[in-house]
Amino acid sequence: MAEDCIFCKIAAGEVPSETVQEDEHTLAFMDLNPWTRGHALVIPRNHSRNLYEVAEDDLRHAAAASKRLALRMRERLDCDGVNVLNACEPAAWQTVFHFHLHVIPRYDDDPLQLPIRPRQAGPDELARVADQLRGG
What we know:
By secondary structure, the protein is α+β, with helices and mostly antiparallel strands. It has 3 helices and 5 strands, in the order H-E-E-E-H-E-E-H. It has one domain (6-134): HIT-like (HIT family, subunit A), CATH 3.30.428. It has a 5-stranded antiparallel beta sheet, covered by helices on one side.
């Protein structure tokens, strides 16, 4: 547990939350600033700053818990789909530095949209980036 981490405090029961699901490895609770009705966060009980640092087992447990929650959202909230989002570092919108997954129920009439439309990449660009990622 990190002393100054709000999510660690929630997991320890020191800060109240609207818990919706928990097990020995993870905790899921309602997001205080939901993007849609039912938006929740899934965290591992073990502290890690973000995706770069999370232990493989904690990542596996959080992913499985996110799936269970998504299925529950479909069944009980009658959502039309679900987004699972991770923000890693401020450039990617991370504001709380405890690894977490946003599980966001989506409804056909909700206002969420991608902030920008993806653009098609050319084959040369894809090949160059793929080569970089492969270590070439």
